[in-house]
Amino acid sequence: MAPLVGGLASLGFRKGRQIAVPVLATTLVVMAASVLLLFDMNSAGMTEFEMSEEGLGPMTWAIMVLDFALMAYFVITGLRLRNNLVIAFGALQIVPMALLEASVFGEPVEPAFVVDYLAVVMALVISIVGSIICIYAIKYMEHDSAQPRFFAAMLIFLGAMNGAVFANNLLWLFFFWEATTLCSYLLIGHERTAEANESAVRALVYTLGGGVALAMGIVLVEHYYGSLSIAEVLASAAGGGPVAAVAFLPFALMALAAFTKSAQVPFQSWLLGAMVAPTPVSALLHSSTMVKLGVYWLLRMSPALGAMTELAWSIALVGGLSFLSTSILAIAERNSKRVLAYSTIGNLGLITMCVGINTSLAISAAIILLLFHAISKALLFMCVGVVKRETGSLDIDSMAGLRDRMPFVSIAFGIGVFTIMLPPFGMFASKWLVAEASISLPLLMFLLAMGFAATIVYYSKWLGRILQAGTRSEGPSPAKDSLSRVYKYTLGALVVGAIGISFLIKWVVDYLVNPYVEPTFGVSVGGSSISIFSTLGEFPIVVFLIIVGLMFLVLGMLVRPRQEELSKPYLCGESYEFETGGFYLTNMFDKDRVTTYSNLVAVVLLVVMISIPLLLEVDPWL
Amino acid sequence: MGLADKSRLKSPWMLHFDTGSCNGCDIETWALLAPKYDIERFGMLNKANPKHADILLVTGPVTKKVEDRLRNLYEQMPEPKLVIAVGNCASTGTPFQHCYNVNGGVAKVIPVDVFVPGCAARPEAIIDGVVLGLKVWKERAFAQKDGKGDKETEVRE
Amino acid sequence: MALNLSDAALQVALFVLAPIAIGLLLGIDRKVTARMQNRVGPPIVQPFYDLFKLFAKRPMLMNNGQVVFAVACLVLQAAAFALFVAGGDLLIVFFISGAGSVALVLGAFSARSPYSYYGSQRELMQVLAYEPVLLLAILLIGYREGTLMVRDLEVNLLPGLALALIALFVVLVIKLQKSPYDIATAHQEIVSGPYVEYSGPYLGVTKLSHWFELATLLGIFTLFFWDENLAVSIAGKLAIVAAAMFVAQVIDNSTARLTRERMVRFTVTFGTLLIALNVVLVFLSKEGVF
Fold first, then answer.
1. What span, in angstroms and rounded, lies between the C-alpha atoms of A120 and C13?
2. Which of A420, B9, B105, C76 is surrounded by the fewest CB atoms within 10 Å?
3. Is A445 in contact with C199 (Cβ distance < 8 A)?
4. For residue B7, which of C201, C78, C191 has the smallest C-alpha distance?
5. How far, CA to CA in Å, does C252 sit from each of A53, A340, A473?
6. Of C41, C60, C191, which is closest to B40 when you measure between CB atoms?
7. Chain B residue with minimum CA distance to C43
8. What pLDDT sits at residue A364?
9. CB atoms B7 and C40 under 8 Å
10. Does C149 contact A at CB distance below 8 Å?
11. Which residues touch C106 (CB under 8 Å, ≥6 apart)?
12. Which H or E run contains A533?
């Protein structure tokens, strides 16, 4: 409860210059509350923690009113922007929601908040990583003219996310979902430039479209299951609960909504455009948290998908396709934030794919992936942000030799890249589990293989650019590094977090992942003190972590070339200054064509996904 | 003779550099790689990279323009190294010795260990030169562990 | 899962002997290539002379990043092979070996030299070409057997996975740096690619890590044959390795180098196609068609 309160408390913010204090206060409260929540649940041995609605009576009213206000705001914005799609989507949301509210008004949905371990994982990510990013944003945005607006949106967003993962009432979920859309729209367009506005509107259109799908899905859920409680609906769909029925269509629609929120193919262009937003926005919304809302929803639905194999297949295929196409496209990208955006979409595609595979191994892999990706990606985005502040450029090629100029950021960035793609870190462990999970559906193996190789290529390329340095006789001296302390602490915190949590992966698996997976799927991933086990193999992660860690530390300290050992680069005997160009494989594939083809395939998949249930609906009447 | 020294003798990698020759000696050097003379049986490989090479095989009379580059490559070779000047041009600069653009032999630029005369030097002579160079190495290994000697010896054609 | 002393001793012995065996194998490779080219060729132990000579040279380097990553590459490749010998998870072995390749690439990037830079880009292209195929082959093994632990893979894989083995031959050609796909270390084009700025002992380190990399790959080849009788098993495994090397040599000596785009296109289409066919076959056999 506390995190939600903390988040909601930030709603009333309209601040002046001294913004650091309220932001810091809120973030600390949120962080502490989420950690407390975890320990509470753990020590009480609960797998679920419920809170009924009676204690929060006025909330239903408040949420309903706010919900309609929100939708009205969207319509008004659409009118203001003269964007027909926004108007249409806004209106399309209001109609079914109004009908629904009219019919169920007065019936309380029990329980109102359900906190299970999946929600706890999400809450931890949102609260801790999100808070670190907000603190980072304090320094990053210090020269910005509209800070109150910015931080209000950021903090409201944190609250909305927390609310969304805890909610059990579908209507409340819808409200929080749309609230995140609103925050995203505001934050992307923060800079009020033409490009920013255009990207913000595009994001709004796509996610509102998803909201429409979600609204229709919710209406249909009520129609079929007679209940708006997520727990009841899922139990029914999985075959145990008040109404034992399998209804494809609402779940297909809600999956569609999740796809738009998580920017899967073919909806990925909004996320790419959203990269014009200030970096903290990118780090928070578009890599660690908001886009995770879509996959969170898919994970939440996953127990029900067991009975709907065609839908699960479509979801898996969309996810796999997203991963493959975005990994390939990232190779050809020069703008560092867009590369990270592609990488995010790819990883979300992996999580989506796991939901589609729908085995215990896959779901466990998905949750682990979610957790680790958030940390590492936030770290990478923050590093890119610092680089942009100091050098003014987002181009990868301009980062050549960054190791000399900004050693701290380079090391943080290097660790970010290492944790995100290389063994023996946690993210890699989750990728290993994903690969093993994909064995159950061999078609997906093929989508994975090329994607993994492409991931290695573009990250190594980038890290290599940064490492390109000239002849030096000793390591970087930290005294020359004039980076602000705020940056150092926040980046440092994430670095420690990323490495530390890889060490602690056994506890993650035992305490955070398995409790959620066990009731529905059974356990397939376990840990011992040195390795993680899965049904197919084992990964002695701690052993490797120690080896790699020691190796780098020892080597970093031992290897100090003496002066007479230094040599010049081989240039056929010449000695001149040179600049090397980037390597973007433009003659191997055309970025636009790849995008077009993958969009096409994805659209076909989605049409199939929606139309088959639709036809099944219509069929009984024929 | 330790393992290190024995390995050095058994695996001399060469870097071949042309400092303005007529390519006659170069062709003879490359002929060594062909099946007829096959220097790979001695473990010799033609590496184009000074950082990988032990032996620097220089042809040509070292024009003034190429002098810096030659020195650059010589410095990029790690110790222990050997320099073999192949051909009359590389040895003394003849027949271009007094031209305005020529330094007059490799020895004027970097320390040379073996001279292989001939115009063009015959492949057998070049092989003899390399073998002599290895012998120089062996003796140097007995005499002292490292350091650049300037022992110069000639090969009779 | 108690590890008794003789098991551990055997694994340690294998770990130490394998690089020596690989060195000999590479020496035999050079000899056979020379004979194919109507030459005499170096003695079989030549790679060891090369290695010792390199370690005996005076070190020379450009910056410490190079060395750190080269040693990292060695440690990772050796660790991957050690895990393989200890019977660990094949997928982890593959990924750690991949991490070793990445370490080498990063080391090459660390040195500010154009040849090194383009060499490592090409090395990444090679990774793009062979990694998908190798990953798919390993996943296919997992699919068929239901486990990826090497110590549990005591079954004759060859009949069912012959197509995957053929796809792996292409991977071997690339890893051995042979034509037509010796792209990263193209002698005339890029002087030694990622190894350009390495010299002396550090070059020796990279060579040794390459040996471990080959040991891992050839180890995967040996998984394809197994028999109850230990002698027959070993003979079969050696036969597969010998056959693979010989095919690689024949291909090397009869082709010229192709472009890197063609390498990626060919490997990905040909390799993936073969493995896809194999997947279908395994699927059908699981369903009971044959």
1. 48
2. B9
3. no
4. C201
5. 74, 40, 41
6. C41
7. B41
8. 79
9. no
10. yes
11. A460, A463, A464, A467, C65, C69, C120
12. strand A532-533
| Rounded Cα–Cα distance for residues A314 and A318 (Å) | 6
CA distance C38 to chain A (A): 32
What residues of chain B lie within 8 A of the CB of C48, using their CB? 7
DSSP track, chain B: --HHHHHHHH--EEEEEESS--SHHHHHHHHTTSTTT-GGGGT-EE-S-TTT-SEEEEES--BTTTHHHHHHHHHHSPSS-EEEEEHHHHHT-TTSTT-TTB--SGGGTS--SEEE--TTPPHHHHHHHHHHHHHHHHHHHHH-SS------EE---
HEC string of A143-159 equals CCCCHHHHHHHHHHHHH
Give the pLDDT confidence score for residue A4 in this predicted structure: 55
* pLDDT above 70: residue C198: yes
> What angle, rounded to 10 degrees, do the helices at A117-124 and A360-391 form?
10
pLDDT value for B149: 39
Strands (E), A25-108: 48-51
**Rounded Cα distance, C221 and C168, in Å:** 8
Contact A111, A51 (CB under 8 A): yes
Of B66, B68, B76, the CB nearest to A570: B76
Q: Which residue has the tokens 């975005």?
A: A326
A265 near A321, Cβ under 8 Å? yes
Query: Mutate which of C83, C112, C190, C263 to test chain A, going by most A C-beta atoms within 10 A?
Result: C112
The residues facing A167 across adjacent strands are A113
Whether the Cβ atoms of residue C138 and residue A435 lie closer than 8 Å to each other: no
| pLDDT in the model for residue A10 | 55
SS3 of C23, please? Answer: helix
Phi, psi dihedral angles at A50 (to 5 degrees): -115, 155
* Predicted-complex ipTM score: 0.85
C-beta neighbour count of B94 within 10 angstroms: 15
CB contact under 8 Å between A570 and B69, yes or no, is no
Best of B1, B8, B9, B11 to mutate (most C CBs within 10 Å, chain C): B11
Q: Does A524 touch chain C (CB under 8 A)?
A: no
Q: Give C192 to chain B, closest Cα distance, Å.
A: 8
How much is the pLDDT for B155? Answer: 43
pLDDT at C220: 86
Q: Strands A538-539, A532-533: parallel, antiparallel or unpaired by DSSP?
A: antiparallel
Structural domains of chain B, ranges and CATH numbers in brackets: 20-146 (3.40.50.12280)
- The whole-chain average pLDDT of chain A stands at 71
Strands A526-527 and B45-46: unpaired
Residue A520's φ and ψ, nearest 5 degrees, are -95, -35
Smallest CA-to-CA distance from A235 within A165, A142, A168 is with A168
Residue A49 phi, psi dihedral angles, 5° rounding: -140, 120
Backbone angles phi, psi at A229, to 5 degrees: -90, 125
Measured between alpha carbons, how far is A570 from A554 in angstroms, rounded to an integer?
Answer: 29
- Give the separation between CA A62 and CA A59, rounded to whole angstroms: 5
Q: What is the DSSP letter of A49?
A: E
Count Cα atoms within 13 angstroms, Cβ side, for A346: 30
Q: Looking up tokens 């569609």, which residue turns up?
A: A256
Interface subset of C 172-211, CB within 8 angstroms of A: 191, 196-197, 199
Tokens of C50: 């090369």
Which of B49, B80, B146 lies nearest to residue C191, judging by beta carbons? B49
Task: Give A567's pLDDT tier (boundaries 50, 70, 90).
Answer: low
> Among all chains, which residue has been given the structure tokens 């997906």?
A444
d(CA A397, CA A466): 9
Task: Map tokens 């990626």 to a residue.
Answer: C264
Return the H-helix or E-strand segment holding A532: strand A532-533
Angstrom distance (rounded) from CA B105 to CA B114:
12
